[in-house]
Design brief:
This protein is mainly α. It has one domain. 38% of the residues lie in helices and 4% in strands. It contains three helices and two strands, in the order E-H-E-H-H. A two-stranded antiparallel ribbon has the order 1-2. The chain is globular. It starts with a strand and ends in a 7-residue tail after the last helix.
């Protein structure tokens, strides 16, 4: 998801459809009274789907590695990432990253 300035603010993964998952985040934010409630404002935030350069379905590990890679890439670009959860721990990521380098 990007903000009105085109900066990536959230990276996630889903199998249930991007809009379904996004709506769940917004509803969770409204219920808990947190920042995710603001994501529902189309003037401030835009949902975007990112295609990764891999054919076929991903294993759960590969999906988490890609999510971690995209979060790290966005942070390195100075984007205001709002992800709270870390999709894969540093130890496991470092152990396997050479086998599944996303870039």
């Amino acid at each position: 998801m990007t903000d009105a300035n085109g900066k990536t603010v959230y990276v996630g993964q889903t199998q249930q459809g991007i809009n379904t998952r996004f709506d769940q985040h917004v509803a969770e934010g409204a219920k808990k009274g947190n920042f995710k409630a603001e994501w529902g404002d189309p003037e401030k935030f835009k949902v975007e789907q990112v295609e990764i350069p891999k054919k076929g379905p991903l294993t759960p590990y590969e999906a988490h590695v890609w999510e971690k890679h995209l979060i790290d890439e966005s942070k390195a670009a100075g984007n205001p990432i709002q992800n709270k959860a870390n999709p894969i721990g540093e130890t496991k990521y470092n152990k396997f990253k050479k086998l599944h380098t996303p870039c």
